[in-house]
Specification:
Helices cover 29% and strands 25% of the residues. By secondary structure, the chain is an alpha+beta fold. β2 and β3 (37-39) form a beta hairpin. The radius of gyration is 22 Å and the shape is elongated.
Length: 308
Amino acid sequence: MGTPEFAVASLAALGEAGYPPVAVVTTPDKPAGRGQQVQRSPVGRYAEAQGWPLLQPEKLRASDFLAALRALEPDLMVVVAFRMLPEVVWRIPRLGTFNLHASLLPDYRGAAPINWAVINGESRSGVTTFMIDKEIDTGQILLQRETLIPPTWSAGDLHDALMVSGAGLVVETVQGLEAGRLVPQPQQEAAFRHAAPKIFREHCLIQWTQPALAVHNHIRGMSPYPAAWTLLDGKVMKVLASRLTETPADQPPGTLRVENRQLQVACADTWLELDQIQVEGKKRMPADEFLRGYKGPLTQVETPEGPF
């Protein structure tokens, strides 16, 4: 059970390890992109290419979907980046249902653990497999694998690393459950330090009044998606990458300047260099390329008032 590209890696790894699924469950096809063409999820496309049976329920409690699942008589269900499952679903398999989560549980429970780990400047993260229970992300842990986070990584870099690491852990978990050598362990609540809630537009807004390191981590934690943003001359400017400087900021937070042909913004303590930006209606580009073509005022970026 899964939807995005992150889950495809685990699905492919299971097939390659000799565990082709009796069925794959994903979201229904829906319109996407500028043309709003109806598209199948990445997991659905991969399953279809492999010739594996595909189920796309609108509602997980629907009687026809539940009947189809029970008819498969599954030993085990594997969930990677899917929807919250009702108990009537996750109790069906003989060995239960386990989930892959992109953090070292119990820390960073929630929908966006990868983004929040980078935003908070963590030096390590990882993946966890755990048995699904009644409360979200609180089930007993099966296996964990740690991944170090270099200070240059964006959320996209961590996503790609955990996608590969997670796929290996999923296979290892299935093998361990099959052999009966895995004993689920309760989560240690004392290790829960951070929640990882779903990210909304207001979370992406850059607060230039913070120290430069916090702003820099916020930018890389939102890159490439959903992207940190500010306002420049009344237009949304996404900031996809930045670089720290050691130069003390001698202007109010949000002040812009061009230093050695580089665009910099004053933060609470030092100047922050903007590396990759995307102004509303334009493509992503290096900030120096943007400077060569921009004709508007370069004095201040703005933090608008909500709602967003």
